[in-house]
Amino acid sequence: MNRAGEKQMPYYRVVGDVPRKRHVQFRRPDGGLYAEELMGEEGFSSDSSLLYHRHLPTAIIKAEPVEPFAGSVLTPNLPLSPRHFRTQDLPSGGDLVTGRGLLAGNADVRMSYVATEAPSELYRNSMGDECVYIASGRVVFESTYGAMEAAEGDYVVVPTGTIHRWVPDGRVTAFVIEAAGHIRPPKRYLSKYGQFLEHAPYCERDLRSPQETLVVEGEEVPVLVRTRGGLTRLVYRNHPFDVVGWDGCLYPYAFNINDFEPIVKGIHAPPPVHQTFEGPNFVICSFCPRPLDFHPEAVPIPYNHHNVDSDELMFYAGGDYSARKGSGIDVGSISLHPAGFTHGPQPGAVEAVIEAVRQGHTRTNELAVMVDTFRPLDLGPAALSVEDPAYAWTWAR
């Protein structure tokens, strides 16, 4: 048997008990066979993992339709306008699945905000990967792969089809990114064999994943399943958390934003240096505290810019945003700057930062998660309910 903790190739992991060869007889102590489940992406032509269940993972005894979650309708961003939404004003409720308030989305990605103390039911998103950024609080993520803790600043990446649930330890707030495909590290950070390269702003040592299996007893266990056709609640004959071992390159993992190593230049660098993950027609970026631009004549603040192919949605997670002073942006804010609109520092911010550098200020103190999409973003009802209607005109003050 292989055990967790052995040295493996990049990305490959083994947890619990697995047989020496794949797809051979692997028997329980009572002589019966464990049931294999191969979880594979892209028609089994990409990453996969092999899980060994005590019971049949196919054994369901009931299927029920579920009404769509309230507040799931999107509205076009018309008239075209930059937007500011205050997630601090959204109510708590539901859980980390059912309590998501839809902020914005398109055919490739949907973004939500949730504040809750309640544990979720078992859930499987069969439409795409999820990336859940824990903005505050602590939570245990339980899945067929095992359990792991996550806390403020953690991105938790959940592969498509993973049965899981969230168990908060007190109040938790989260920014949720749901993809219509897979979320991965940018290709330019990886070797052709999948290892993080030396220039990458994070590496394998920064990633955390379940360290041991999670076995839960239970019968007639409901699992909420999201598919392209809608929501269904399947009832499993036995609890899906019955895996005694798994191995492969496909599994949930956590990465803390504070482990991102910012790439800095003498003059201001554009957003691609902050890229953390990529998904279908979108990217996720991390803006972290870092040294200010150090050229003697640098303008150490973003220049006015127009990302002609992307909408930019930014969740302000912490710190101080000197470039946005006077705009109303604060921790917990979300800004949306659509393609078709040029945006940049607030009036007076450039000279203020240059003067701060003269006075010895050498570092930024910002923390934010940004999603750039290559198709226009429509607006969700949660965002529209907490919009700052004066934001668009703050550059003209």
TrEMBL record:
GO terms for molecular function: homogentisate 1,2-dioxygenase activity; metal ion binding. Fe cation binds at H305, D311, H343. Keywords: Dioxygenase, Iron, Metal-binding, Oxidoreductase. Residues 81-256 form the Homogentisate 1,2-dioxygenase N-terminal domain. Homogentisate binds at Y321, H343. GO terms for biological process: L-phenylalanine catabolic process; tyrosine metabolic process. This is Homogentisate 1,2-dioxygenase. It comes from Planobispora longispora. The lineage of its organism: Bacteria, Bacillati, Actinomycetota, Actinomycetes, Streptosporangiales.
